[in-house]
Write a structure and sequence with these properties.
7-stranded parallel beta sheet, 330 residues, NAD(P)-bd_dom, globular, UDP-galactose 4-epimerase, domain 1, NAD(P)-bd_dom_sf, alpha/beta, 12 helices
């Protein structure tokens, strides 16, 4: 059996691509020690041209997962991009079962930070991560759940913000949006931190201790921000100002669905209203120094990131998930 030092999923995405880039170019790992994966054979040339190993690994096809994971020492398990939670749950079950069956030595699962070190059961996107952590516990495999802070880069998605927006509409909630502190985190810094953790291991960072039976390592910025802070950051670097308006929750959902430039559905905004409520109740306020330890510097704050993104694009910053037609509410 040929040993595979590192096998990475999700490398065609933004976070996974950054992790791979850092492993190769900053940490100088030999390309031959890394196996990149994709559900599509058409990606083979892209990765093999860089000297990387390549395997087809499709979460919907358990036989490809088992074949790819044979002999793997460190498995970076990125969540499926599927929107339907029931389908994602099945896909993740396929992955965990295959990893156990072939004896993967250590699984590094990339989760989300809703709930901090606890369990948030109200945000649908977090539910699959909770289930997957429970699958990993039941498997008795060696694993770490890397709970990644929500991307500051994705603020347009959270706030339904577009450069063309005349105003920033937020729901009127209790507790209010102005008291909902969030550890918004840079996607690039998360990629850098995860690459260091995966490559160097926990042994190189004794202050980082996985928390509880879910083996959580929480990677966040050190500073929390509210969406009012983010709105102020946007306006501080734009010529055309966008005032903040507060709408009653039902009105906010109706208005967002009616006027959304990305054609997202009413159900989508109803789900996002739950996100807002949970964020205002502190679901994303927990911070941890682990990312600073891995970076060797203080992570950027959400305000700093947004100012850089919006200012650096002359106010025209966009986020790919904020448009492109109606989406699943999950």
């Amino acid at each position: 059996m040929v040993s595979q030092k590192y096998l990475l999923t999700g490398v065609t995405g933004g976070l996974g691509g950054k992790i791979l880039e850092d492993m190769l170019n900053r940490l100088n790992l030999p390309a031959a020690s890394i196996t990149a994966t994709s559900r599509s054979e058409s990606s083979r040339g892209l990765f093999e041209s860089q000297g990387l190993n390549f395997k087809v690994l499709d979460y919907d096809r358990p036989e490809t997962i088992r074949e790819a994971l044979v002999g793997v020492d460190n498995f970076l398990f990125m969540s499926a991009s599927e929107f339907d939670n029931d389908k994602r749950r099945i896909m993740h079950r396929n992955v965990v079962d295959a990893a156990k069956a072939v004896g993967v030595r250590k699984t590094w699962y990339v989760s989300l930070a809703f709930g901090g070190f606890g369990v948030n059961e109200k945000v649908s996107v977090q539910a699959v991560h909770n289930w997957t952590e429970e699958m990993l516990i039941e498997s008795n495999m060696d694993f770490v759940s890397i709970r990644a802070g929500v991307y500051a880069d994705a603020f347009p998605l959270f706030m339904n913000w577009y450069p063309e927006s005349k105003a920033i509409h937020l729901p009127k909630l209790e507790p209010p949006v102005s008291s909902g502190y969030i550890a918004l985190t840079s996607r690039d810094e998360l990629g850098e931190g995860i690459a260091s953790l995966l490559t160097q291991g926990l042994e190189a960072h004794p202050s980082i201790k996985p928390h509880g039976e879910r083996q959580i390592v929480l990677l966040t910025s050190a500073v929390t921000s509210t969406f009012i802070d983010i709105a102020n950051a946007i306006n501080s670097v734009r010529i055309q100002q966008q005032p903040v308006d507060f709408l009653e929750p039902t009105e906010w959902v109706e208005d967002a669905a009616k006027t959304d430039l990305g054609s997202k559905s009413k159900a989508w905004f109803e789900t996002r209203l739950t996100w807002f409520r949970e964020m205002c109740n502190g679901a994303l306020e927990t911070t941890d120094p682990a990312l600073e330890t891995l970076l060797g510097r203080k992570p950027l704050s959400g305000v700093e990131i947004v100012k850089s993104l919006v200012g650096g694009s002359n106010g025209e910053y966009t986020w790919h998930q904020n448009s492109g037609g109606a989406r699943s509410a999950k």
